[in-house]
Amino acid sequence: MEKAKESTSETTLSHSLLSSKFKKPPKSKYAFASAMIASIALLLAGYNIGVMSGAQIFIKDELEITDVQIEILAGIVHLYSLAGWTSDCIGRRNTLLLTSVIYFVGPLITCAANDYFWLMVGRFVTGIAIGYMVVARVYVAEVSPAATRGFLTALPEVAVNAGLLLGYVSNFAFAHLSVQFSWRLMFALGSVPAILLGFGTFAMPESPRWLVMKGQLGKAREVLTQISGSQEEAEAQLIEIKEKAGIPRENPDEFVPTQKYHHTKNIWRELIMAPTPAIRRIIITVLAMQFLEQASGIDTVVLYSPRIFEKAGMRSNTYLLGTTMVVGLTKTALISVPMFLSDRVGRRQLLLSSTAGMVASLVMLGSGLHMVGDFVTAPTWIVVVCIMAVLSYVSFFSAGLGPVTMAYSSETIPLKLRAQGMGLAIAVNRVVCGVVAMTFISMCNVISIAWTFYLYAMIVGFAFVFVYFCLPEMKGRNLEEIEVLFGKKEDDRSRRMIKKEKTGELN
C-alpha cells in the first residue's frame, strides 16, 4: 500500500512538472543536431527513390528493357525495404551506423550493373537500407522534447523530400551526358551522404527510451538532461518513461532487465494478438493512415513525373526533367509548413486541409489529362493546367498528409511497442507504395491515366473522412500520455454503461 502511494505521488509529480514548469522548455541544440544527423538516412532514402524518376529514361534506352520491367524496377525497392528490424537488439544508433554501410554499397552495385539482374541486386541492397528509415523516425521522436516534437519529427520528412529533390537535380544535371554514363553517375552520387551518416552516428547519443528498456537508467538520465536542458525536466521525463517500461522506482541506475521489464517476447501479443482497446485503436489508426498516405498515389508523381508530363503534351527530355525538378523543389519547400504549424494548429487540422486540397488537385489533373485526348497536339493551356495540378497536389501532400502521417504514427505508438509498431506501419506503407508504383503504368494502359488519378482522388476523399471522424489531436501531449488519450473513448463508453446499469437498478 505504501509503495502504491509512493508510485502515485511520483506520477503526480512527473505530470505536474511536465505540464506546468516545463510547458515551454528551451529548445535543445543537442536534440536538434542529433535529429539532423539521423535524418541523413531519410535524405538517402529520398535520393535513391527520386533518382529513378529520370534515370529510368536512360536505363531503358541502354539496356532495352520493357515498361513492365521499368515499373517493377522502380517500385520493387519499396518491397525490398521490408527487411531488418534490429533497433531493439543493437540500439537505434548502431542500426543507423549499419544503415550507412548498406547505403554506401547499394548504389555502387546499381551503377556498376550491366544487365537487369544486377540492377535488381543493387536495388535490393538499397531497399534494405531504405527499410531502416523507420529507425531514423523512431530515433528522432525519442530524442525530441515534447514542446518541439512536432518540429523535430518533421525533419525526417524534410530530409526525404530534400533527397527526392537532389535526385531530380542529378537527373537534370547529368541528362546531357552519354546514355551509358549519365544514369550510372546519378546512382553513384547516392553513396556520398552515406559517409556523412556513418561518421555522424558517433556524435549522436543513444535513444533515452531504448536505454531505459535496457536497464541503463544512468545513461538515460544523462541523455535526457542533454536534450532537455534541465535536470528537473530530465528527472520528470525519466519517471514517465520508467512507468511505461514497467520499471519500479527503487531500481538502480544500472540493472539487468528481467522478463518483467523486458517485453520483447510478448511484444507481438500485446501489439496484435491480444491488444488493449487503446492499443487496438492506435494500431488500426496508424495502419489505416499509412495505407491511405501511399494509396493517394503520391509515388506515381515521385517516380513518373516525366511520363505524366509527356502524356500532358511535353516532348523534350530537358523540359520533362526540368519540370520534374520544379515538382521536387515545390514538394521540398512546402514540407516546412507542418514543421512550424503542427505544434500550433495541430496535426488533425493540417491533415484535413491537406487531404481536401489533394482531392481538388487530383480531380484537376485527371480532367486535364482527359482533355488531352481530344487533341492531336495538346494546347499549351492544358499542359499548364496539368503542371499546376501536379504542383498543387505535391504542395498539399507535403503540407500535411506526408509528414504528419509519419510524425503522428511515431508519437502515437507506446514506448514498449514502438519499434515493432513502427516496423509494422512502415511495412504497410512500403507494400502499398510498391504496389502503387508497380501498377501505375499498367493501370494507365487499362483504365487511362485520367481515370487512374480520379481513382486516387476518391481514395484521398476517404482519407479526409477517416481523419475527421477517427483521429484525436496530439498537439502538446507527451509520448507517455497518448495511450491514455486513445483509451478515452473506451473509458467513456464503460462509464456510460455503468451509469445505465445503475440507473436501471434504481428504476
Order of helices and strands: HHHHHHHHHHHHHHHHHHHHHHHHH
| Estimated helix fraction | over 70%
Taking the sheet with the most strands, its summary is:
none
Q: What percentage of amino acids are in beta strands?
A: under 5%
User: What is the CATH topology?
Assistant: Growth Hormone, Chain: A
* CATH architecture descriptor: Up-down Bundle
Pfam family, one: Sugar_tr
Subcellular location: Membrane
Keywords: Membrane, Sugar transport, Symport, Transmembrane, Transmembrane helix, Transport
GO cellular component, one term: membrane
Could you give a short description of this structure?
With 507 residues, this protein is an all-alpha fold.
Characterize the structure shown:
The chain contains 25 helices and no strands. It is an all-alpha fold. The protein has one domain (29-489): Growth Hormone, Chain: A (Up-down Bundle), CATH 1.20.1250.20.
Walk me through the topology.
Layout: H1 2-21, H2 29-63, H3 67-80, H4 87-90, H5 92-111, H6 116-131, H7 133-143, H8 149-152, H9 155-173, H10 179-188, H11 192-200, H12 208-213, H13 217-228, H14 231-245, H15 267-273, H16 277-295, H17 298-312, H18 317-334, H19 336-341, H20 347-372, H21 380-412, H22 418-447, H23 449-470, H24 482-486, H25 488-506
Helix pairs in contact: 1-14, 2-3, 2-5, 2-6, 2-7, 2-9, 2-10, 2-11, 2-17, 3-6, 3-22, 5-6, 5-7, 5-10, 5-11, 7-21, 9-18, 13-14, 16-21, 16-22, 16-23, 17-18, 17-21, 18-21, 20-21, 20-23, 22-23
Domain Major facilitator superfamily (MFS) profile: 34-475
Membrane topology: Multi-pass membrane protein
Family: Belongs to the major facilitator superfamily. Sugar transporter (TC 2.A.1.1) family.
